[in-house]
């Protein structure tokens, strides 16, 4: 598996990512500062101050792209998009179609951003990254927290642009918790399992959770009721990749999402919400998964289909 990491500031191109039972392990992310109006931690919302480093392939980074679009922050928060291929050197910037180089720090490898902040860093080099151009540091690299802080820090008083209204926050947080392990991380637990048992456990939990949310969406348009919230952003970025990559590449193939009438209507509803389809890049999604995980797909051949009935 071409998954490396930093160890005491040195890049190593291999890492262990399963436990003794063959279960996929996902270590927590490291940079967890908060941007707030009061700026308790030195990060206040300001147009032009922050930069997002993302991959179009990555479901976690995709959450932040969607929030940036829904809030209308494209001019206020600048963007870099990595090459979809993550090889032995980890994420890097290139001139490939759809990519945007690092215009802020001029790096070639994403790991150099982490090393700029901590030259002795040990840990994974992940996207998304919310970067502060003023303090030249990483504010946060946890998608769920980045979308919450952008949501609260910019235009929160506009009900049309608030995706975590105070009366729904408890429910939104519970929902994001509930979908994380079986669905968002579940597809990875299935795909990166190295034993039959670990794989089957992950797939069984995944489809039990999908069945549950299918029944919820029979009664309401969105996970927390009748309006689009952060919880929907968190689920959508996994579901939009499901039939294109998780079904085949990660062997999550009990059913397609398009076989679930309510889940598929829900995916289409969100996909066609203004601003969202532009954040979905299936070329990068398919190229990343099928080319980067050489233990799962050693030939690196990227399938032609499917044609998604979106
Ligand atoms: N918990 C993080 C996960 C981020 C993450 O794992 N991103 C993947 C891309 S899909 C990554 O950069 N992986 C590189 C690696 O694990 O080395 C979040 O939600 O932001």
Hetero ligands: glutathione
The number of helices is 9
**Low-pLDDT segments:** none
CATH class of the largest domain: Alpha Beta
Per CATH, the superfamily of the largest domain is Glutaredoxin
Query: Within the largest sheet, what's the order of strands?
Result: 4-3-5-6
Major sheet:
4 strands, mixed
Helix content: 25-40%
What does this structure look like?
The chain has helices at residues 59-70, 111-117, 143-153, 169-184, 186-191, 196-219, 230-246, 261-271, 282-292, and strands spanning 5-7, 10-12, 50-54, 77-81, 129-132, 137-140. The protein is α+β, with helices and mostly antiparallel strands and 310 residues long. A 4-stranded mixed beta sheet has the order 4-3-5-6, sandwiched between helices. Strands 1-2 form a two-stranded antiparallel sheet. The site of glutathione (GSH) has 12 residues, from helix 3. Residues 3, 29, 58, 60, 124-128, 142-144 line the site of glutathione.
Topology (elements, then pairings):
Elements: E1 5-7, E2 10-12, E3 50-54, H1 59-70, E4 77-81, H2 111-117, E5 129-132, E6 137-140, H3 143-153, H4 169-184, H5 186-191, H6 196-219, H7 230-246, H8 261-271, H9 282-292
Parallel strand pairs: 3-4
Antiparallel strand pairs: 1-2, 3-5, 5-6
Bound molecules: glutathione (GSH).
Domain GST C-terminal: 165-289
Region (Disordered): 1-23
Protein name: Glutathione S-transferase family protein
């Amino acid at each position: 598996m071409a998954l490396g990491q930093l160890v005491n500031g040195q890049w190593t191109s291999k890492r262990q990512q399963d436990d003794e039972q063959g279960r996929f392990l996902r270590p927590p992310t490291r940079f967890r500062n908060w941007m707030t109006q009061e700026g308790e931690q030195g990060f206040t919302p300001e147009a032009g101050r922050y930069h997002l480093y993302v991959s179009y392939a990555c479901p976690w980074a995709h959450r932040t792209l969607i929030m940036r679009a829904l809030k209308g922050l494209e001019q206020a928060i600048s963007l870099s998009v990595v090459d979809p291929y993550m090889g032995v050197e980890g994420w890097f910037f290139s001139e490939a179609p759809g990519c945007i180089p690092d215009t802020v720090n001029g790096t070639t490898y994403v790991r150099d951003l982490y090393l700029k902040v901590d030259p002795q860093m040990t840990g994974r080099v992940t996207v998304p990254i919310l970067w502060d151009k003023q303090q030249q540091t990483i504010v946060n690299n946890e998608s769920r927290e980045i979308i919450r802080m952008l949501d609260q820090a910019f235009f929160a008083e506009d009900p049309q642009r608030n995706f975590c209204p105070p009366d729904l926050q408890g429910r939104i947080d519970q929902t994001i918790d509930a979908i994380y392990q079986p669905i968002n991380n579940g597809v990875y637990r299935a795909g990166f399992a190295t034993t039959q048992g670990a794989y089957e456990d992950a797939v069984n939990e995944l489809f039990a959770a999908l069945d549950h949310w299918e029944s919820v969406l029979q009664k309401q348009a969105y996970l927390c009721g009748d309006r689009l919230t952060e919880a929907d952003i968190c689920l959508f970025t996994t579901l939009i990749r499901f039939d294109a990559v998780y079904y085949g590449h990660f062997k999550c193939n009990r059913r397609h999402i398009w076989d679930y009438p309510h889940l598929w209507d829900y995916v289409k509803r969100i996909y066609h919400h203004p601003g969202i389809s532009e954040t979905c890049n299936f070329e990068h999604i398919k190229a990343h998964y099928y080319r980067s995980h050489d233990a799962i797909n050693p030939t690196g051949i990227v399938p032609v289909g499917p044609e998604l009935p979106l």
